[in-house]
């Protein structure tokens, strides 16, 4: 029988090559088990609201009003919306002629892009041009747009950290490019090793690959490490000398759980370094409303900012953006609100700050914020994993994940082989079936040969943590006992 | 020691993906940029130009030109944006009670009522099931929520299918000429070949299967593997609504030739003539007796058009039927890389496919709004069509549906010469002169494709009804002067 165009064999090979484990095999199995009635704890994706984090009130009020502007004419509107939310809704509606239902400028509403530019300026101390800021339906779309612009063919290589968030590997596959890995050093707290990076580049070039760009995820996903200023400087020097565009994924910039390495943007470091680098290194920086203490994943709000890209390149990027017409307008407003939140003195400020601190407004003095809570959970999880047999875990300095190394005994690895599964997939499936904890195997992110990990989030509610960690420990103990025998300790 | 080329930045126009360089999208292209510059000039200096305002007739963006959203839809969305409202008794003073009830129903379908969480990568199951029920009610044939992929507008869904289908430039996709340039752009971006089939302007932009066959054969003789047929019904920019018999022949053609049918049906609720009706291609296929296993068919719908016109929300879906589980897995996989489409848009898609029914509190006001918008669109379509046809050297097919008129400009040789001298296509030249004289922004026909040697412009029917007479008179004035200038 003649092959049909949508037969599996007839599909675009690049599509078939794509892997995205975050919603892959483990997740699908977990969903199956959930349907069968098993209680599942989904820790596979950085999705705070799905695990009970409540949305901040002020932005929801503002967008609800923008959604239904006829409410603004209703005399009763003040009964359920505070005055500053009403004012802010009017502010955004004035910026968006036609309201939420009209395609905006393909780059996003100019007024919101100005708010983003102001935020960047305040954060970094350097002016930012709204014309070089494009809002997107989530940061992922922006990443895909930029990678698609760079990758010409299979000989164009993109330096990607290993382990990495698999959007990068998936996008590179989809666009037919080459992924050039650089390994983060687990023993050195997932640090960058420039000797290793240079080696990777040299090896790629010897294979005829033109290395075009370097991806850096700071804070890291899945690894959570926060880069020091010195490291970012070295990175920028490297990109300058190797003629690479730096793609700085900074979506977790608000999620910092230690004080030694606060977040510093690649752009700030670049401008601090002054010319010639500050004028020549090409940089694209990505941010989102999905992470931080906002966690508004479902809104699909994000942006990228371009630094030192030639105007003709920007024109081409604009052209591709225009084909998609415009990013979703409510998501744009969320972005505006995130970069321009209520200030002290605003009516909603107290409530907003309190929610950010995750406590009733009157208890503002007791500090236990969403971010504080995440910091605490980061510690609990790291310590919990480190107390388990054959498990070693770096501290989650930032982002939302824990990435423990599981030292699988040889007999477990054999059993995995017999079952036709990668060893970490085998372990994670067993973990899922025994405990309902749904994780993502480390192979989904990349790891050194023979070294296995899993990624979990630190997002389950604080009060659920002891039970989750003990459940994990019990499973791990019996797994290790099964495949290694009694502990010699 | 670096071996990189010194001094050349990595990302310049010379080193960009050539597919990006190749693709074009005139709807927001050169003429629109020019219009935006003129608009800025007007803001600085209101008397500097021969008109007071720019009138954007280039893009199907109804609410940007004053069309009001459907109140009930916005009430429900507003409540879903801020579910805490549902706990307040005062909310009943501001929102209609059926909107409140609908919001509860929708939130119950969302785990944890968390509208801020990433959903299932195909979209929230309960909403997909509602959409499937809406499709079934529309067509009279079963639809499954598992076949629905909710996307940020219909456009990303089109891109997904092109990505799946196009392996190299030897893969061709049959596209109508004229077409909505998302298709040409998407095919270029994914490195495939556009195989054109010409709609017949003489017969109201008729789609002849003989023409499809001819183009298919020609492409095959050049070594192109034709993978799919794109049909836009109602048409964009052409506005024709296909007759049922015509649709049946198209389905049979796809079946016989082993093509995927990509049915762009985003204008399904924009029909302005009494003798035509929308029939989905799925319904036609099922009517012919083809089941889920017989015919690969992808149907696209959007919240951007119809009477709801919610472009800025980026809501839409594709319903995919007739292919294997392995292929569905691949589509799911690609969708999962982006995690999910925006949740508010998903909710809106479910409202559009399942609006208020007779007996609901909001039904009457909803119907009033809906009928008001659709009848006004019909009147504007007629008024503009008649106006174009009254002008020397312009013929214009009726807009049976969609949101556009695509008049043909029978330009005098002198005008064509002037365009050549200016280094632009004649229709682009005309559109630029029109913009500079009147502030009216249209898209040159070359942006959509046309029979070589013919020239068109695409003009939307969307400016508010009370502005139409002024637009018509301004256009007339410009056109008469233009013809005076260039008449042979």
TrEMBL record, chain A:
Recorded metabolic or biological pathway in which this protein acts: Amino-acid degradation; L-alanine degradation via transaminase pathway; pyruvate from L-alanine: step 1/1; Photosynthesis; C4 acid pathway
GO BP terms, alphabetized: L-alanine catabolic process; photorespiration
Protein EC: 2.6.1.2, 2.6.1.4, 2.6.1.44
Domain (Aminotransferase class I/classII large) ranges: 84-458
Cofactor: pyridoxal 5'-phosphate
Residues making up the signal peptide according to the UniProt record: none
Domain of life: Eukaryota
Protein's name according to its UniProt entry: Alanine aminotransferase 2
Annotated source species: Digitaria exilis
UniProtKB/TrEMBL annotation, chain B:
CDD domains: AAT_like
Broad enzyme group: transferase
Domain of life from the UniProt record: Eukaryota
Pathway, per record: Amino-acid degradation; L-alanine degradation via transaminase pathway; pyruvate from L-alanine: step 1/1; Photosynthesis; C4 acid pathway
Catalyses which reaction(s): L-alanine + 2-oxoglutarate = pyruvate + L-glutamate
Family from the record: Belongs to the class-I pyridoxal-phosphate-dependent aminotransferase family. Alanine aminotransferase subfamily.
A Pfam family the protein falls into: Aminotran_1_2
GO molecular function, one term: L-alanine:2-oxoglutarate aminotransferase activity
Annotated keywords: Aminotransferase, Pyridoxal phosphate, Transferase
Protein name: Alanine aminotransferase 2
SUPFAM superfamilies named among the record's database cross-references: PLP-dependent transferases
Keyword Transport: no
Its job: Transfer of C3 units between the cytosol of mesophyll and bundle sheath cells to maintain a nitrogen-carbon balance in the C4-dicarboxylic pathway.
Subunit structure: Homodimer.
Domain Aminotransferase class I/classII large, chain residue ranges per copy: 112-462
A biological process term (GO) from this entry: L-alanine catabolic process
Keyword set includes Hydrolase: no
Cofactor requirements of the protein: pyridoxal 5'-phosphate
EC number: 2.6.1.2
Annotated source species: Digitaria exilis
């Amino acid at each position: 029988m003649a092959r049909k165009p949508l037969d599996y064999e007839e599909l675009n090979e690049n599509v078939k090559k794509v892997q995205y484990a975050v919603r892959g095999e483990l997740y699908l199995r977990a969903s199956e088990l959930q349907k069968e009635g098993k209680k599942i704890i989904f820790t596979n994706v950085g999705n705070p609201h799905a695990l009970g984090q409540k949305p901040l009130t002020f932005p929801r009020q503002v967008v609800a009003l923008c959604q239904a502007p006829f409410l603004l004419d209703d005399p009763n509107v003040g009964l359920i919306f505070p005055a500053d939310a009403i004012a802010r809704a009017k502010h955004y509606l004035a910026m968006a002629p036609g309201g939420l239902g009209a395609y905006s400028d393909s780059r996003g509403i100019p007024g919101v892009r100005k708010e983003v530019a102001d935020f960047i300026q305040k954060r970094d101390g350097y002016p930012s041009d709204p014309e070089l800021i494009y809002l997107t339906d989530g940061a992922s779309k922006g990443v895909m747009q930029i990678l698609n612009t760079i990758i010409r063919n299979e000989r164009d290589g993109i330096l990607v950290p290993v382990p990495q968030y698999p959007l990068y590997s998936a996008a590179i596959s989809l666009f037919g490019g080459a992924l050039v890995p650089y390994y983060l050093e687990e023993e050195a707290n997932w640090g960058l090793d420039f000797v290793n990076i240079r080696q990777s580049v040299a090896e790629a070039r010897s294979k005829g690959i033109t290395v075009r760009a370097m991806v850096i995820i700071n804070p890291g996903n899945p690894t959570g490490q926060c880069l020091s200023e010195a490291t970012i400087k070295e990175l920028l020097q490297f990109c300058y000398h190797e003629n690479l565009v730096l793609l700085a994924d900074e979506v977790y910039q608000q999620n910092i759980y230690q004080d030694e390495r606060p977040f510093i943007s690649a752009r700030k470091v670049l401008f601090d370094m002054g010319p010639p680098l500050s004028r020549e290194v090409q940089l694209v920086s990505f941010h989102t409303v999905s992470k931080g203490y906002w966690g508004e994943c479902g809104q699909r709000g994000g942006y990228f900012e371009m630094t030192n890209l030639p105007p003709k390149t920007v024109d081409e990027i604009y052209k591709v953006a225009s084909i998609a017409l415009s990013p979703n307008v409510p998501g744009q407003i969320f972005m505006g609100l995130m970069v321009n939140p209520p200030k002290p003195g605003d009516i909603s400020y107290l409530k907003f700050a309190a929610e950010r601190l995750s406590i009733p407004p009157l208890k503002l003095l007791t500090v236990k914020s969403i971010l504080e809570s995440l910091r605490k959970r980061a510690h609990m999880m790291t310590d919990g994993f480190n107390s388990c047999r054959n498990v070693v875990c770096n501290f989650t300095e930032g982002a939302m994940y824990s990435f423990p190394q599981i030292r699988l005994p040889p007999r477990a690895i054999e059993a995995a082989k017999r079952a036709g599964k990668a060893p970490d997939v085998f372990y994670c499936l067993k973990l899922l079936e025994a405990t309902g904890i749904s994780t993502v195997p480390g192979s989904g992110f990349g790891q050194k040969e023979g070294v296995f990990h899993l990624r979990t989030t630190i997002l389950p509610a604080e009060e659920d943590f002891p039970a989750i960690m003990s459940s994990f420990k019990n499973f791990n103990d019996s797994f290790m006992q099964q495949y290694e025998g009694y502990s010699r300790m | 020691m670096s071996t990189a080329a010194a001094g050349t930045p990595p990302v310049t126009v010379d080193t960009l993906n050539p597919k990006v360089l190749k693709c074009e999208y005139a709807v927001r292209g050169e003429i629109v940029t020019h219009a935006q510059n003129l608009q800025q000039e007007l803001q600085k200096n209101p008397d500097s130009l021969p008109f007071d305002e720019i009138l954007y007739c280039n893009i199907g963006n109804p609410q940007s030109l004053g069309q009001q959203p459907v109140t009930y839809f916005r009430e429900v969305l507003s409540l879903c944006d801020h579910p805490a409202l549902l706990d307040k008794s005062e909310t009943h003073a501001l929102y209609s009670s059926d909107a409140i009830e609908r919001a509860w129903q929708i939130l119950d379908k969302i785990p944890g009522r968390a509208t801020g969480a990433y959903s299932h990568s195909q979209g929230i199951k309960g909403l997909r099931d509602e959409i499937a029920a809406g499709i079934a009610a529309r067509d009279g044939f079963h639809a499954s929520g598992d076949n629905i992929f909710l996307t940020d507008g219909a456009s990303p869904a089109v891109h997904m299918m092109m990505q799946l289908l196009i392996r190299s430039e030897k893969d061709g996709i049959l596209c109508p000429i004229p077409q909505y340039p998302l298709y040409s752009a998407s095919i270029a971006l994914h490195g495939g070949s556009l195989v054109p089939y010409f709609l017949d302007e003489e017969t109201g932009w008729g789609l002849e299967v003989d023409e499809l066959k001819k183009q298919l054969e020609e492409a095959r003789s050049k070594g192109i593997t034709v993978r799919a047929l794109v049909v836009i019904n109602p048409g964009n920019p052409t506005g024709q609504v296909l007759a049922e018999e015509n649709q049946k022949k198209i389905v049979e053609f796809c079946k016989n030739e082993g093509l995927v049918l990509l049915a762009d049906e985003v204008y399904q609720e924009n029909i302005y003539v009494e003798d035509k009706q929308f029939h989905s291609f799925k319904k036609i296929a099922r009517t012919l007796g083809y089941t889920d296993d017989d015919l690969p068919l992808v149907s696209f719908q959007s919240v951007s058009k119809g009477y709801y016109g919610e472009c800025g929300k980026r809501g839409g879906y594709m319903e995919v039927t007739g292919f294997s589980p392995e292929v569905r897995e691949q589509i799911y996989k690609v969708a999962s890389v982006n995690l999910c489409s925006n949740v508010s848009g998903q909710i809106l898609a479910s409202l559009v496919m399942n609006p208020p029914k007779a007996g609901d509190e909001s039904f009457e006001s909803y119907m009033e709004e809906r009928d008001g918008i659709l009848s006004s669109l019909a009147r504007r379509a007629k008024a503009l069509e008649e106006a174009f046809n009254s002008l020397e050297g312009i013929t214009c097919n009726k807009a049976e549906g969609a949101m556009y008129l695509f008049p043909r400009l029978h330009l005098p040789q002198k005008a064509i010469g002037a365009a050549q001298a200016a280094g632009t296509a004649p229709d682009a030249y005309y559109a630029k002169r029109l913009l500079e004289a009147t502030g009216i922004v249209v898209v040159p026909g070359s942006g959509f494709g046309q029979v070589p040697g013919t020239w068109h412009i695409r003009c939307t029917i969307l400016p508010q009804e009370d502005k139409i007479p002024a637009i018509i008179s301004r256009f007339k004035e410009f056109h008469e002067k233009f013809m005076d200038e260039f008449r042979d």
